[in-house]
Amino acid sequence: MPDFNSLPSKLPKGKTSIFSVMSSLAREHEAIDLSQGFPNFETDARLKDLVYKAMKDGYNQYPPMNGIPELREQISAKIEKLYHIKYKADSEITLTAGATGAIYAAITAFIHAGDEVIVFKPAYDSYEPTIKSNGGKPVPVQMKGEDFCIDWQEVKEKINSRTKMLVITTPHNPSGTVFSKDDMQQLEALLKGTNIILLSDEVYEHIIFDDIEHQSASRFPGLAERAIVCSSFGKTFHNTGWKMGYCVAPEALMKEIWKIHELTVFCVNHPTQKAFAEYLKHPENYLSLGNFYQEKRDKFLELIKGTKFTGTPARGTYYQVLNFAKITDEKDTEFARRLTIDHKLASIPLSVFNYEQKDNSQLRFCFAKTDETLERAAEVLHNI
Ligand code: GLN
């Protein structure tokens, strides 16, 4: 018998993601699932019809490695309109297996053993394992306070000759905060004159509230020239299970990303790309998203008024962080478990994303749910 247990693991401390853990706990205990971030309502029927039409029309074989030209053209036009920069459709845009596929390819393409990558904590949980599996070293910078602010002086102090990449997420998962124009300008100044690559995860670019403008890295010339910007159709068009995203980057970076993208997936789903190419012709399909989710955020916050949970309203993403310090001093992971098993409401504990798993008694609730689900969830929170 071969002894596979003695093989050295590439990720010895790697474990199943908190999203899978909490979602399966929710299923097992038939709890309302506000944990993993996905909508519990349907994607647009017109979009489904477009996918079906593409299948019937015979678009069922491999598309080009970097995506079909008409979709890359649409993405280029969308970015130019929104962020005033022109990405070349043939060499600077790639369709990927969700944003996760883009993030994996971007990190793997550039991170060598010993390279340092600055990540902001709480950090979305795919960055660090990917950095480590490539021999790189994540260098954490904890965001501060209720508003999850960034201390740019601390970032400056952590940059050195080994810093290869810096990862930002805006709007930010799991905190629901957004980077301001000032944040981006400070970052731009810090990176000036370096060869540091910026990985900018912007999957919630259209889910932003209270008239705040999304500050895409692509808007800032000193960032765009070094940025790999990742986006997600799943988040924008309510179909996370289709696993379709994309990234844009200057040609010199994209050439290297392609090598990894080709080796991991080669290309992504053809009929879905045909459908998105058509659907993106109508900007209202994504421009209405901020208002749509702002109503959900407001509804959720209104519904939970009078409970013992407190929190600053999310400024972007479809997550609301709530503090439960008035209820218990249990660890957030324990409380999240108990909330799921005993009270039938699943959420995500924030400590798992924090530096040294610091526990600030915070849980993340996904409000991309039907009003009926949000009402039932709020009822649970009122009883605690
Ligand atoms: N992005 C989603 C979240 O933050 C889920 C992603 C995943 O499960 N990999 O909940």
From TrEMBL:
Keyword Transferase: yes
Alphabetized UniProt keyword annotations: Aminotransferase, Pyridoxal phosphate, Transferase
Keyword Cell inner membrane set for record: no
A family per Pfam: Aminotran_1_2
Aminotransferase class I/classII large domain location: 31-381
Cofactor: pyridoxal 5'-phosphate
Annotated GO MF terms: transaminase activity
PANTHER family assigned to the protein according to its UniProt record, in alphabetical order: FI04487P
Protein name, as recorded: Methionine aminotransferase
Taxonomic placement: Bacteria, Pseudomonadati, Bacteroidota, Flavobacteriia, Flavobacteriales
